[in-house]
Amino acid sequence: MTMSNTGGRRKPPTIHDVAREAGVSRGTVSRVLNGGHYVSPTAAEAVNAAIRKTGYVVNRHARSLITGRSDSIGFLLTEPQERFFEDPNFNVLLRGCTQALAAHDIPLLLMLAGTEDERRRITRYITAGHVDGVLLVSSHSGDPVAQELCEAGVPLVACGKPIGLGSKVSYVAAADRDGARDMVRYLLSLGRRRIAVVTGPLDTPGGVERLAGYREVLAEEGIEYDDRLVVSGDYSRASGEAGAERLLAQCPDLDAVFVASDLMAQGVLTALERAGRSVPQDVSVGGFDDSSAALAARPQLTTIRQPYDRISAEMVRVLLAQIGGEDPSAVILPTELIKRGSA
Amino acid sequence: MTMSNTGGRRKPPTIHDVAREAGVSRGTVSRVLNGGHYVSPTAAEAVNAAIRKTGYVVNRHARSLITGRSDSIGFLLTEPQERFFEDPNFNVLLRGCTQALAAHDIPLLLMLAGTEDERRRITRYITAGHVDGVLLVSSHSGDPVAQELCEAGVPLVACGKPIGLGSKVSYVAAADRDGARDMVRYLLSLGRRRIAVVTGPLDTPGGVERLAGYREVLAEEGIEYDDRLVVSGDYSRASGEAGAERLLAQCPDLDAVFVASDLMAQGVLTALERAGRSVPQDVSVGGFDDSSAALAARPQLTTIRQPYDRISAEMVRVLLAQIGGEDPSAVILPTELIKRGSA
DNA sequence: TTCTCTACTGTGAACGCTCACAGAAGCATG
DNA sequence: CATGCTTCTGTGAGCGTTCACAGTAGAGAA
């Protein structure tokens, strides 16, 4: 119908052109391209020179057609979309994964599975083999997409321990429980005794583990667990604000709040300010993540740093290993207490 | 060496399998797949049934090999990477583009060109024809990547008017000048007369235009332009904070600040708070973007809304049209004044 | 009837690459 | 001299599609 490529792109050189230019055969060029074993130094040099001269770039479609690999990776987000907007962690993760893959010359396909339709479309796309593996961000339990991909045998690495996918799925996570323990111990060291907590969603391992760390430390220190001091949120700023208001109503005597994410902690700060409690004088507030929200908050948040740069790098490493035939594995990375103004 | 695909993925059905199942030829199946012209209802029905039965999904690599199209689009970010972290606008844009493309069943490849190496790698990748077109986010002038892509005739749509790429490149932008005018007029309507401004980078059209809008309105109202009331930032929160401090030092009598981005406005609020100025009583603050930062700020920001959802949708529309052979075009979308607590 | 036109269908070739195989050359060993 | 081994190279086949072309069947017109 219409003339394509108005700009006038010319036909790119093929492996054949390079072969002719270098005075060798296609096979030799291909060998130079992939590994370079069993090829003489002279031939290799000639081929490389020809590649430079012609400006040859391999046609990945042709390669994929025969190898069966796509040499690309999907970054799949099955969280509700609002979180993607709001949560600075996703940015960091996405960037880290993109860069780690770039080092292997592997493009990243961004896939957002918000609606049911999108879910189906993406599942088909992936199981059809259009990506070699999937980096999954979805902490919610019983994710049907993840389930299907697992069953279809698609290499998969989750960010955070997935629930209900059996033990055969790889994941990379921060040491949530340890991090929570560090924070609660720190709050105790400040002399706080009525420490409230705003948990993450309790159908996610992150949410569960951080609460578990809190309870462990309390038990170890002989402090009674008071469930009026515990409310749960969904990692959003709004849920932090609402949670803090519930806490203030239930336990006006609280002197610290451990919040399971920095974004929620922002909301907590807002609620405390409105209630006339000053931070950190009246109430100490501890966050979790060390996302950019921690620096944006007023006062800046004392928080538990999740090493997102390392997490993304590990996710990519584990996924590529798995695509290469290795068994699934789990990686837990240590967290770090970062002290700032809020506690 | 190693056995690939431990999970045991089976070979997916091909067009041949579908043809056999439906009792027709490859050609007919292909015709049903692409448009469906010149194919009898009976055959079409049989083919569709066979597709459903076999679970057939087209092999895009094989298709691309022959059509020359890749049926994928690159989302290219050449901004310094920190902005990508911090700025909530990117998220919205990225999400919007991904979804708009998903509606056309076109995957989005995320490309971050931070370092010089990455720039080269990505340029080669794109000019080699591995994507059909590029959605470009890079407002900085003289972007070498954009330049090269343009010259190579790669279909390209920029977010915001690009500088120095000639008039033959498509772009989608908000009406920056109008938006700035609306905000300044609104601040005047509040009785403010000493209106300071924190501009964006002045090597970007956005930065220039928003400042121009400010000056226009001042001139129209017969208010003298005072360049001590003008400082420029780089859209980051930190630069907003620093800018406000300079302004307060230079012009302690300022009674309003028009800030060229919400993120910078957050920094401005911080600096004003530290200086003991209350917002909006002592000083009115107006932002720009209506990003999530506007809601996160305290008080919430009165701002100029950029319709990012429409911008991303238009970017995709224009790009696809251009790939289809149409000429480059520019789209300017209207902004909207959103009143909240800060002014 | 015969011819033409339209609506539809099948077939071979090609896209650019990798892979398996065959073969050539060089060198050491029997 | 034959044999085997290692290192290197070229060649044909095939990956799963689309595209151009040829061909068939049926309807309508001459």
Could you name the key traits of this structure?
homodimer, 343 residues, alpha/beta, 6-stranded parallel β-sheet, 4-stranded parallel β-sheet, 12 strands, 14% strand
Q: With helices defined by DSSP (H or I, 4 residues minimum), what is the helix count of chain A?
A: 14
Shape of chain A: elongated
Main sheet: strand order of chain A: 2-1-3-4-5-11
Q: Largest interface by residue count?
A: A-B, 66 and 67 residues
Percent of residues in helices of chain A comes to: 40-55%
Structural class of chain A: alpha/beta
Low-confidence stretches of chain A: 1-8
**Average of per-residue pLDDT values of chain A:** 90
For the termini of chain A, the CA-CA separation is: 66 Å
Q: Give the oligomer, counting copies of the same chain as homo and different chains as hetero.
A: homodimer
Strand content of chain A: 5-15%
Main sheet properties of chain A: 6 strands, parallel
Q: Sketch the topology of chain A as an H/E string, one letter per element.
A: HHHHEHHEHEHEEHEHEHEHEHEHEE
Radius of gyration of chain A: 25 Å
* Strand segment tally of chain A: 12
